[in-house]
Specification:
By secondary structure, this protein is of the alpha/beta class. Helices cover about 35% and strands about 20% of the residues. The strands form two sheets. Strands 4-3-2-5-6-9-7 form a seven-stranded mixed sheet, with helices on both faces. A two-stranded antiparallel sheet has the order 1-8. The longest helix is centred in the C-terminal third of the chain and has 13 residues.
């Protein structure tokens, strides 16, 4: 099956066998797993994952790819293909429908909407065991960045507050058809256990992180002036003269807890 990649869907089909094998090995699927693949494309990952787990649910938006994928999968295992925009899929409802406590999610994500998909999955973290995604290497670098890094930012903080982020391997452009103009990486995301999660209001955390990184060269006292004054920032144990890029994810939680009532909603 050599489908014509569609630029409108951001399609780059993985075809290099050695990278496929390494990715499947990293996912380590086994019989009994409830696997969900986002954007199966031509089935490069779908078929070996299905062979190991014996059943898999694939979410595919491109109707042209579905018939051939179903035919190739039929002798291998039970493949259910859901024609849908993944951003509209309720993973909690899907887990209940599949009779699973939690899902294992994988996918070679369209790079132009990778961040919205990541945040959508994080919103359903309680229904997810782990995630393995192929993304633009620059995005994975940002996701895993430590405070003080030039690429540490909003994406780093919000994902690290929800998941353990583990970069696994880099994949060159030549492993895809057509080759993208950037390097790619595979990353593992493991949602934090309930006892590891912060207890601040999610909207407050989002508001603080968004404001702090809106102009990252500004000090916190300037960047957060619409939310917190210098004394409140200092009261949270943080220097008002610091910049957002130097704060840990936990620091942002403390700032969120210092917000006066309704501040994040104004």
């Amino acid at each position: 099956m050599n489908a014509r990649p569609k630029k409108s869907f951001g399609q780059h089909f993985l075809h290099e066998k050695r990278y496929i094998e390494r990715i499947v090995s990293a996912i380590a699927p086994k019989d009994g797993d409830t696997l969900v693949e986002i954007g199966p494309g031509e089935g490069a990952l779908t078929l070996p994952l299905l062979a190991a787990a014996h059943r898999l649910t694939a979410i595919e938006l491109d109707t042209d790819l579905i018939p051939a994928l179903g035919e190739r999968a039929a002798p291998i295992g039970d493949l259910r293909i859901v024609h849908a925009d993944v951003l509209k899929v309720d993973f909690a409802a899907l887990a209940r429908e599949l009779g699973a406590s939690r899902l294992r999610i994988a996918g070679n994500l369209p790079y132009y909407i990778s961040s919205p998909i990541l945040f959508h999955c994080v919103e359903h973290a309680e229904s997810i065991q782990d995630m393995h995604f192929m993304l633009q290497k620059e995005v994975v670098d940002r996701m895993a960045a430590d405070p003080g890094s030039k690429v540490y930012g909003r994406l780093s903080v919000m994902l690290q507050l929800a998941c353990r982020v583990v970069p696994l391997l880099d994949v060159p452009p030549g492993a895809f058809r057509p080759p993208p103009k950037v390097d790619s990486s595979v990353v593992r995301l493991v949602p934090l256990a309930p006892e590891e999660r912060h207890d601040a209001a999610p909207d407050d955390v989002h508001a603080v992180v968004k404001a702090a990184f809106a102009q990252r060269r500004k000090t916190l006292s300037n960047a957060l002036r619409q939310l917190l004054d210098a004394d409140s920032i200092r009261g949270a144990g943080i220097d008002p003269g610091a910049r957002a890029e130097t704060l840990t994810p936990g620091d942002f939680v403390r700032l969120a807890k210092a917000l006066p009532a309704q501040a994040a909603k104004d």
